[in-house]
Amino acid sequence: MKQETNNEIDLLLRRLGRSPETSVSAGNGDVDHLDADELSAYAENVLPAAARARYTMHLAECARCRALVVQLSSSAGVVPVAEVAKQSAPSALRKFLASLFSPMVLRYAVPALGLILVAAIGLFVLRPKQNGDGSIAQRTEAPASTNITTNTPDPNSSPAARGYIDQQKQEAAGKPAQSSGPTGNQPAAAARAATGTGSQVDATSRDELAKQEQQQQPRANEAPAPPAPKPTQASDEGKRPADAEARREAPSVQVAAAPSTAKTEDAVKVEDRKAAEIAKARSDADRVQTFGGASAGIVTRSKTQNKDDAEKDKDAGETRTIAGRHFRKKDNAWIDTAYDSSKSITTYTRGSEAYRSLTADEPAIKTIAEKLDGEVIVVWKGRTYRIR
Amino acid sequence: MHQTAVEDDRIKGPVESSRQIQKVLNDGAQRLLARASDNRSLARESLAPRISAAVDKYLLRDDPQISEAEIAKFIDELQADDLCLIIACERGNENAWNDLVERFTTTVRSAARSASSNEDAAEDLAQSIWAELYGLRTRKDGAPASKLAYYSGRGSLAGWLRAVVGQLAVDTFRKQSRLVQTEEDTDLDRLAHDASLGEGQAILAGIPTPEESMSNRFAQADMQQALNTAVQELAAEDRLLVKLYYFDNLRLREAGAVLGVHEATASRRLTRIQTDLRKRVAKILIDERGWTQTETEKSFAEVAQHLDIAQI
Asked: Is the CB of B60 inside 8 Å of chain A's CB atoms?
């Protein structure tokens, strides 16, 4: 539009230029023309601004003087150096910018840039994949390390933690009573004979702990990190994670070794409480991980941990929602997210009479138990049930 | 207090001022002699009047209150060697005259050739120039009427000599000079212009078409007159560019050289002027001739179309 506008006015001006000019020189009268000095000084552009403006006014009207100035300026070969220099700066910038969009650049550099971009994206996409295991392991490392960090300094300060350790010791003491039997007492007697002090229970407890350590050692030797034992029997499912935790806490227990009572007939209840404690500790740790974000990353992953550990931890991240309840999988057990370890828990075995009567009253629990395999801890109408 | 001081300055101003300027001129002349490679043994006093005349002409005439620093700067920019040579020639220094002739014969001859239609005329012109410079003619007061007295030293001596040649060529050989435009189309245009004026029309009478209505022709004449007015209303610098480009048919490079700007700058300036003129013409037509905006736009397009065809 502007070009057209200028084209129109350009044509009109050309027409006007071909008409005779009514200049001051037309009459050839006693017009005060520029003298030779003024003409040459103007042509050489060496006049002060005000004087130059005065002569410009005359030149705009006087064809005679203008012709002389034109002739002088062309023969003088005056090059507006300053103006050229002024022009060179932006033109250099323009040239540089133009070179960025030159056909050569567009033809070769842009596709090359595109390839680099694709390669970069590919690397970016593949990188998380490679680090995926690591990142999950790192993420799930948080509960374990959190457990350690929370449990280790706490024995003397936190009553809850102390109780937890006591429970572990109880379990450690009770376990041989259940499984080892008399054979487990032989080293205990040897230990008692060696020390000559402490009760039999104490000796047994210590012996059992030592035994557990011995069991753990070969495993540690076999693999870079102590793997969590996989549950082999349904009846052990509740106990196994607790055992693993107990083994992890074994050094702490040893350090904080205190007189403990022997495992008694209500060992199952103690186990339940212990499992509840672990679950709570883990869920707490998960919460820390979820809300803390980077806090999980702060805990550096031990290079000695093996893949089993990572796989186990991967399971821990799985969640399901059934009948309006949310479950998180931990150690092969589906635990209701609303589960409160401080509440009492009732255990039912699938297929048992008690289970049938419960599911008859609460069909939703049956649905949950059917859809989730393995152990399920569900909070239903304010009560907590464990389904095995 | 301050007011009294100002009043005192007014009273003694011209005297003090002239004394100060005189000092600046003398000092400037001294510096000029000092920086000249050959000052021709001139005294400061012989140089000062010439410098004073240049300062009056190029500085004080436009700004009588100009600062002493500006005057000193102006003097320091004068062509020291050229000015000393000319003043020495004027004062009858034969060596200086020989130097002048030796150094500038080629320049004068070249300028004379450019301003003359043939070699003989050029030779005559060159001889006339040397006679004028030497001062063979005498003024009314009996002093030689040498043109050398008019060289200020502001521009180069070569440029000044070319200007002298050009002026003399215009005055003496005006009809034969190449500076006189004798383009055929200009004459034809003048005839058309003269004819059209009688009909109350302007320049566009040269491109009538059979189907063109009278009102349309009047409209075009109005537009051309409005453009003429608009050009006259331009700033002197812009008007000079329009004259150089459209009237003198210079290229942008040549027009830029006259204006002291680069070709690209001249081009940008011309584009701006065209846009400005378009607006001015439209304003004149609407405000003074009672045209509507639509009529103006339409006429612009029609005139441009006719002119385009006429040029083809």
From this structure: no
